[in-house]
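Bug #77: duplicate submission created two jobs. Keeping one. Sequence:
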Amino acid sequence: MALPDVPLPPDMVAAVLVQEEAVLFMRHRAHTGAYYVLPSGRVAEGESLEQACQRVALNTIRVAATELGNQIKTDLVAESMQLSVGDAICEHTWNRGETYHYFLVRSNDASLLGGPRSIPSIEGHTFVWMPFEWIPLNQVAAKTIEPKGAIDACQFVAQMRSHG
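Kept job's structure:
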């Protein structure tokens, strides 16, 4: 008896958003400690890779901004938050055969998209979980990043920026 064909899962897209020589990563908790992922998600049926990247990045960033805003009693989700998806950086196969597509993304600087200097102060608030972090490009390789291809994508962006 032959096994049925199992379709591959949809492709994944990830946004590499760089401001002030730092990349925006989402922080996740695991039993082994925190790890970081780029704003990413699956491509929906009928979506282009670029459309999917814009959708999942905005959704992911809005969720993180809402989570932090709820903790410090501040509205961080600017309705004017916008992203534009630029060039494809690289791709790699991951996990169960999914292809991860990385795109360089630019923002309109609204809310926390403005870069490391736009992060609100958490001073005076105890036990605040930061759901995101701007990691300097030259420190990405030292962090626990998943999937590992995200490190390659960030290093490629750092090389592009250093060559003007």
